[in-house]
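Exam review. A common question shows you a sequence with its structure tokens and asks you to describe the fold in words. Practice with the pair below. Do the first one on your own.
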Amino acid sequence: MTLNVGDAAPDFTLPATGGATLSLAGLAGKKVVLYFYPKDDTSGCTLEAKAFNALLGEFEAEGAVIVGVSPDGMKSHEKFAGKYELAFPLVSDEEKGMLEAYGVWVEKSMYGRKYMGVERTTVLIDPSGKIARIWPKVKVPGHAEEVLEAVRAL
């Protein structure tokens, strides 16, 4: 399924770090930054998480919530969040329903081998629950800053 700017963001209810359950409906009225990443504690994913974490206060000042999403389980998420003192929730989508709904669970290829995985993507959702911006195939350096600028403009 391909999502476009202006579409209603697909709702989800999934387990999150800190023993919470997170749903899009529960975040209504806020700007939501959903960033989808392949794997906890890998180099690119760690850099991305640390970049968002470093700017968290600025996102919060704009009324925005950051949520990291990957197919890793909760044990992995808790360890990753603890190791880097991440102050925003990481959501676990082991069933991949949310990843599929947002179109980020895709066929990838490495060294000629095809496999299914998460395409690093960020989705900005406006306070009414509509998609305001989509960043596909994210390159990590400078990305969190770019998302913050979009949040400020929203």
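Now try the second one, then compare your answer with the model answer below.
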Amino acid sequence: MTETRPQHTGLEGRIADIIAAPLEAQGYELVRVQVMGTESPTVQIMADRADGAVFTLDDCTAISHLLSAVLDVEDPISSAWTLEVSSAGIDRPLTRTKDFVAYAGFEAKIELNFPGPGGRKRFTGVLVGADADTVQMKIDGGEVISLKRPDIKKAKLILTDALIAFTTRPGPIQ
């Protein structure tokens, strides 16, 4: 079974732990928490609908109201902060095993925390698959490499015509 929650650490991890269950109870899945800035930080929450339907402005509004109340009670940030809620978008960040699996066959960029295969930290290629421990990617010349999930700093899809066609087709994205 693949995990449905992204892995976060530090303040982002505490916020993710606070908000994941209330989001899931309302039919959403957490894609990413990102805290930007220090003096008056912005807490950016990216989410998907659990049913795979299109994420709308109404979804952003509902999540914003829900999480504002939850975060006000839990108060993970002592200073003033701003909440920003959005969909993951077409050229979405890849944070969960299910994201890497669902978008196998599409182009992505992956940046590692430490040098990986060939001493490189940045890779662009086609996603092949993933499990809880690794992501497989086909890079230049057709070589398939495995990248350790804990070493991935960030990963995101590259906007292509094929990706647009896939994400705008009728029916849920699974």
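Model answer, second protein: The chain is about 25% helix and 30% strand. Residues 69 and 75 are 10 Å apart (CA to CA). Full marks require stating both points clearly.
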